[in-house]
Each structure stands twice: as C-alpha cells, then as structure tokens.
Amino acid sequence: MPSRSAHTTSRVRLTPEERRRQLVGIGLRKFVERPALELSLDEVAAEAGVSRGLLFHYFPSKTAYHRAVVEAAGRRVLRTVRPDAGLTGAPAVRQIVERLIAQIVRRRASYLALVYGQAGPLHDQDDPGATATSLRAGIAELVCRALPGLDPGVTHAWVAYVEDRALHAGADTAREAAHCVAALQALRALEAAG
What we know:
The chain is mainly α and 194 residues long. It contains ten helices and no strands.
C-alpha cells in the first residue's frame, strides 16, 4: 500500500502575501497577451493551483483583482524606466526617455491596454484617465529628481509627449529619444526665459 505522502499533491503552502504576489504575477504575465479586463479568473486560479473561491479570499472582487494587476503593471513600467542608481542630470533623463520609448515600442499593445484600454469598472468615474495620469506623474517625478528645478506640470505634459512619440515611433528609437530630450531642453529654456 502506498504511503499517505504519495497521494498528496505537491501544492506549496504560501503565506498570504506570497499567494497574493503569485496571483498578481500570473495576471501580469497574462496582461502582456491581453487587456486586464479579459483575464479569466478561472485561468489564473488554475495556474496558481488554487480554487476560484480562494482567489476571492485575496481579492474581494474581479474588479479588485484587475485593479491590482493594472497597478502592478504601472509599478513595473516605473521600475523599468528608472535610471541607474547614481545617475543624475541629462544622462539620467536620456536613460529614462530611452527606456520609456523602448518599453512602449516593445510592449505597445500591453502599454496601450494599461494606459488607455481599461474602460469600465477599472476607471474612476470622476477621472477616466487616472491610470495614464498616475503613470505619467510617476515618470515626471523621476525626471524632476534627475533635473531639479523643472516645473512638475510642464514635465508631466512632456512625458505625455514622449509617450505619444513612442507610440508612433518607427525603428529609429534612438532618434526619437534624442528628439524628446531636445524638446525638454527647449521647454527648460522657455521656463528660464519666462
């Protein structure tokens, strides 16, 4: 007769925080393939080796789960574009721009889904552009830290400009990055003259 341990599954018991991270991680991997609103909770639960009911233990609703995935995707973009430690000034800004453009070009569909494609329950009724606004604000903050003295509002608008250039970029992303950095320098000159 086989031992009792031979009949048990190899499911690993995770702490609540580890399980939550696992479920969001699965959602992030799937988000690259399709918008968060199209993520099947049954599929996520099956991949995690848990029941759909257990998924709802960690996320009270499907919307809460989708929101957690979208927020994690935004944090991932910010980590990706963050300049190397110790890099400041114009080199840091150039690195942020190059990384942002590369991220958008490489993952155009998922970026569009993240920033623009989350209509419906994921959007705040009072601010349907909240995801785009918070992501741009985070990137603008990185740029303002690299170049102190920049106007945060102008920098936020410039980030939207960089994003738009990246969404329409061709193969020459280095040229796009140089153009965007030059645009920021022109804005700084205008601010200094004004």
